[in-house]
Amino acid sequence: MANPTMRLGLRAFRQPQLLRQPVRSTQRRNVQTAAGTIEAPVWGVVLAGASDFLRPASQLSITQNMALMATGAIWTRWCFVIKPRNLFLASVNFLLFSVGAAQTARVLSYQRSLKGETMGEEIKDELKREAGLVEKVVKHPESVIEAVKGK
Fold first, then answer.
1. pLDDT, tens digit, 9 for 90 and up, residues 41-100
2. Of 1, 9, 91, 112, which sits 20 to 30 A from 61 (CA to CA)?
């Protein structure tokens, strides 16, 4: 069977209106919005990020996932700023942000586990440190004033 573009061949020169017709692809689905036509493969980045849920956290890149998170947040906001609002693109970018945030949380949790601390232990340690600072300020407020004047 001949390639469809090859079959167009000489007929296109005899019938110029054939050249002006849009070529329809059977592999991609187009979505009509107020802003125009959007191709469905924009979900590809989201699906690629979501497929990383199957990978162990030790193999994930925190910078890549933070970039996904930032990109999703920025473009979601932009989709609501432009006129007309593009809700389809906003939903894609919001899910991109969500996937990036979830993966970043996984990586950070994994890195904490390497240190031997759980999230609860880290929170307790931070609260103890803050309590010690507050206690110091309450007992010796002049030390805080001196520290501020010294800077």
1. 566 777 888 888 888 989 998 889 999 999 999 999 999 998 888 898 899 999 999 999
2. 91
Query: What length is written for the chain?
Result: 151
**Greatest distance between any 2 Cα atoms in the chain:** 95
Q: How many Å apart are CA 75 and CA 128, to the nearest integer?
A: 39
DSSP summary character for residue 25: P
Token duo for residue 79: 């989709």
Strand partners of residue 39:
30
CA distance 136 to 144: 9
Return the ∠ at Cα 39 (arms to 49 and 47), rounded to 5°: 15
Residue 24 lies in a domain: no
Q: Is 124 domain-assigned?
A: yes
pTM above 0.70, yes or no: no
Which segments of 15-118 does DSSP mark as H helices, in order? 17-20, 43-51, 62-81, 87-114
Residue with tokens 């994994």: 110
pLDDT in tens, 108-143: 888 888 887 676 776 787 788 888 888 888 888 787
